[in-house]
Design brief:
Four copies of one chain form a homotetramer. By secondary structure, chain A is α/β, with parallel strands linked by helices. Chain A folds into two domains: 62 residues, Alpha-Beta Plaits; 253 residues, TIM Barrel, CATH 3.20.20. Chain A is built from eleven helices and 14 strands. In chain A, the strands form three sheets. In chain A, strands 13-12-11-10-9-8-7-14 form an eight-stranded parallel sheet. In chain A, a hairpin with a 4-residue loop joins strand 2 and strand 3. Chain A is globular. At the B-C interface, helix 8, helix 10 and helix 11 of B face helix 8, helix 10 and helix 11 of C.
Amino acid sequence: MLVVMKALATPEQIHAVCEYIEQLGFRAHPLPGAQRTAIGITGNKGEVERGNLEDLSGVAEVIRVSKAYKLASRDVKEEDTVIHFPGTDASIGGRDLAIVAGPCSIENRDQAFEIAELVAAAGAQFFRGGAYKPRTSPYAFQGLGLEALRIMGEIRERYGLRIVTEAIDNESLELVAEWADVIQIGARNMQNFSLLKKAGKLRKPVLLKRGLSATLEEFLMSAEYIMSEGNYQVILCERGVRTFADHTRNTLDLSIVPAVQRVSHLPILVDPSHGTGKRDSVLPMGRAAVATGCDGILVEVHNHPEKALSDGPQSIYPDQFVRMMDELEQIAPVVARRLPRGIHVPAAAD
Amino acid sequence: MLVVMKALATPEQIHAVCEYIEQLGFRAHPLPGAQRTAIGITGNKGEVERGNLEDLSGVAEVIRVSKAYKLASRDVKEEDTVIHFPGTDASIGGRDLAIVAGPCSIENRDQAFEIAELVAAAGAQFFRGGAYKPRTSPYAFQGLGLEALRIMGEIRERYGLRIVTEAIDNESLELVAEWADVIQIGARNMQNFSLLKKAGKLRKPVLLKRGLSATLEEFLMSAEYIMSEGNYQVILCERGVRTFADHTRNTLDLSIVPAVQRVSHLPILVDPSHGTGKRDSVLPMGRAAVATGCDGILVEVHNHPEKALSDGPQSIYPDQFVRMMDELEQIAPVVARRLPRGIHVPAAAD
Amino acid sequence: MLVVMKALATPEQIHAVCEYIEQLGFRAHPLPGAQRTAIGITGNKGEVERGNLEDLSGVAEVIRVSKAYKLASRDVKEEDTVIHFPGTDASIGGRDLAIVAGPCSIENRDQAFEIAELVAAAGAQFFRGGAYKPRTSPYAFQGLGLEALRIMGEIRERYGLRIVTEAIDNESLELVAEWADVIQIGARNMQNFSLLKKAGKLRKPVLLKRGLSATLEEFLMSAEYIMSEGNYQVILCERGVRTFADHTRNTLDLSIVPAVQRVSHLPILVDPSHGTGKRDSVLPMGRAAVATGCDGILVEVHNHPEKALSDGPQSIYPDQFVRMMDELEQIAPVVARRLPRGIHVPAAAD
Amino acid sequence: MLVVMKALATPEQIHAVCEYIEQLGFRAHPLPGAQRTAIGITGNKGEVERGNLEDLSGVAEVIRVSKAYKLASRDVKEEDTVIHFPGTDASIGGRDLAIVAGPCSIENRDQAFEIAELVAAAGAQFFRGGAYKPRTSPYAFQGLGLEALRIMGEIRERYGLRIVTEAIDNESLELVAEWADVIQIGARNMQNFSLLKKAGKLRKPVLLKRGLSATLEEFLMSAEYIMSEGNYQVILCERGVRTFADHTRNTLDLSIVPAVQRVSHLPILVDPSHGTGKRDSVLPMGRAAVATGCDGILVEVHNHPEKALSDGPQSIYPDQFVRMMDELEQIAPVVARRLPRGIHVPAAAD
């Protein structure tokens, strides 16, 4: 159920409607748009009486939302969600493409700084690096944990790069929320509903990766789990799905970009590194991703991919990253986008 | 790496080898077999020197295990793993088929007891019922939680049925471990490695469901996560994978049964309810599962499927369950199995 | 559109309705059932006026068939289709299970006879052997063609076994129709509509294998292509579909058996050899297939699988086939079936 | 097996090597490159003695080709294959992007001409239109056949557009070869080996669409079937594969573009219309396709998509096609391509 407020509704009227909804035992989610505010109602099973709501002051209409996802739906919020990073000119979901680059794992301070310097110089605004790694094998390198978070904290300080890193459970979630700018939830945890709810209680942007066999609806329902707890800063990310095809590690499903944009207001990024698992395919698929009109890409860059502790075969070389940035810059205007070069952080900002 | 002890090796010799391994900074996992004991070594990356180990007293040979999974592998333990339920004649993995039956969710005490009485009367030894439900939608019924566990505790008391129920996160894991006989880890959490590790620290059997797009190797690697923490009582469960086919909710991949049996010693059950999502297909596929030679089945039974709060369309009616038991009893001998009827719990047992 | 005749409708009335339909420019397909005859109408796009038909003598009702397939639908013909082999006691689709066994390819006369003798002795009624092989590579063995058909003709003569063999194009279709008892159309040709239509013009049973990525509806639509040309003797065959799973060559989708039986009257067999591609899985999955309630199985048997010119790894040994027959015989009664042993051909029959 | 000739080998030497190969009972396929000629040998199973070949005059080296495809492999021919259309400036596989546009089916002369005029005006060089339609249902519109071919012949005459249309069997193949410039073989016939061989005997370019569940190797093996008969003018085309994802009709697997380019010299186009089945996705995925670096696209354009007899929902409007051409023109230079506008046919050319 969705209550659409009149264009001129006052903050007081909006507040009153929310209070009324909460008194009925439901949850109210005010969603301010450029034109007018909508208020999503969750926790109901259709039993809210529409009549009473429509009588409240400032209410334009009450819409029954048929789709299983509500808060993630464009029906509820028509304008694209843009996520801003306070104290910087970086954003995800607006006109500027977001480029998130870095190594699969933070292996040590030198490696991380070297790569961070390279990607910052090439113009990236976001740095990614794994501190906690969900590995298929219990015997594989599982990440440096807090040490990696601290290294990325230094990188943030030094280069201004905003940090994107994955949380894999409650413990790591708290630490990641403390140190990073964007909390990544990986494909294998896309339906770890307990983790999603906890991330929903935080007030940091969450980058949610599509599960290996998730339908569009399931993907948005997982975003809904986060949003239903009050955290509306969700960024979707396509990273390949599992099919019979064996020429890539996964099959990058770029067609989900226009599909998401049709039904949801949330930004969507694409990860051509995990999506293909092959270095040679990263540049072609990165260009293709931007050409679909997505909001940016995640890409693994390594100074010595052949020695990487994880995902070496899919990490691109620094010079490939520089070339990729040049190519994306040329494609961006075709889809009414711009590739920002470097992040601007006023001296006293953070 | 695997150390195979001589047939006549003494407990002291075995202990000494384990200590030596632990001193090197690795973990030792003694795996007693009918003939001889093997000791799995984990935590190494090939750097253990074989020579030193082979010189230890009682050691027959040292084998380099090439597969990514070790403890789950039949190379490490040739005999089938049989899980016994102390104080009862129930087991999983041996000659007797394990039938785990009950509603998708525990909805209330009356419903649970009514179904439990029915399945107990028909001869099931295990009762399943969801207390914590991983639901695609945050707005769907999420289970009664602790209240459901308590109801199942009473059912256990009354009918002797051993309880199988799902844990979805750390909190529910502790409670489920306390109240249930088998901790279920669902398909969506098959690669929730943090949860797997925690389940590995417990000493209760874990029923691990195959993820919707998990390969055989990934499935066994997830079992390995649990085992690498010292809990060797892992039961695998096929419950359908995701394909293009749309005549069933998932595609039940029965061919994984012989494939698992070839490479692993762990027992494997099949869930034809989730595996097909259609009531009409549950009996045919349940029969088929037993005919492959699996160790038993999980099946959803409901007294009023049309009113079930979850998974109604795939729950069978009580009389269908009775018929299914009769059919499985006839098929069992063809695969050298037996269908036990009812669980035997000596008066003072629990 | 389907015209259901009254139970007591005369042949003349049925004929008159057919003539009327044909005059309107459509095709009439009389489908005699145990109780009454139905007449399928094809070639229309909903424009037949129901009123006029209902006024004709002997007509009980006119049903608009919503599904895309009509003639293959159980709505049109409620009773199971049983295909008889004149001059023998063999049948497909009735109480008796059909076992179709033999080598992937006919390699030479000696090999074919040796295997035929073995499978006949074990009680099979149908012999399969490839004369024309659709091979992925143009450089692989493509079959002996007419020579193979002649060898199978001799086998038919000698052992009474009815012959099932594949046609891959128009040329081979004519020859196969001449020499074989059942014309097989392979998975790769399931949507070779031109070939389907030509097979539909013949009056020999057609065994149609499911395509590697065919949905249930597409599978039945391909059967419909054959039936819409007047050949109603179609036998469906599940042989595995393509998924991400890599422990078998294909994923045998046994759940299509109850799904087909729900919506169609056509018989359905299962091929566990192609469906798994692994010898070790053929017996378990063959048992499972029969346990679902299918109408029989196709299985590759070879006297020297390790030397087979094609599909060696999935062909079972003669002694495995004997064991399989014994196992299937035991499972058959559970699904109200019977495993006939050997084919009965009266001396003067053929 | 591949014989690589010296850079300065004479035509006579090449001819002599071919003759020698044929005398041994194999087939020789001279493949002229920019630097030197290679001669592929097919029909052998490794038994050609390398020594004898290496002794022949003009031979540089003899290479054993391990991959199952030979003639389609880049090992055999390093330079990209470029297909020219005599009497015009059109080509497929070179610097110029090939845009193939038109309706799914030719419905009548007016419709075809109207669309042809539109796409010619927007700058397309190739016109596509179905004369023979492989339809899932036998009751669906099957195409106008020869009449459609004649209409396209007129369109070719009037607008200079080169014609691409599908052949579905032997009969239509001959007619299509007579009337069209490129013979299309559809996804459902990708493994109709009989049809592939017949197309291989012709000397017209063949556009081979990837099957719905074809691996890269199978796709190239089907190209090999055509090439092994002597027709080297094969154009590959990605058109979506079948997966669990339901937000598009098929999942367009763009990552096959760089994968094909790595191992094969054949040109590859992309069909975003069939690949997505949704009009809204055609432009985004068309842009993405070109951004990967493919050789062009096939796109369905219709003047009245809502009234189209087939595939209406995926056909774009004429003004969308114009916009698409403008967008592709901007992306082309990023991948070192050029979008030609209009076809140049000298007055007396054809």
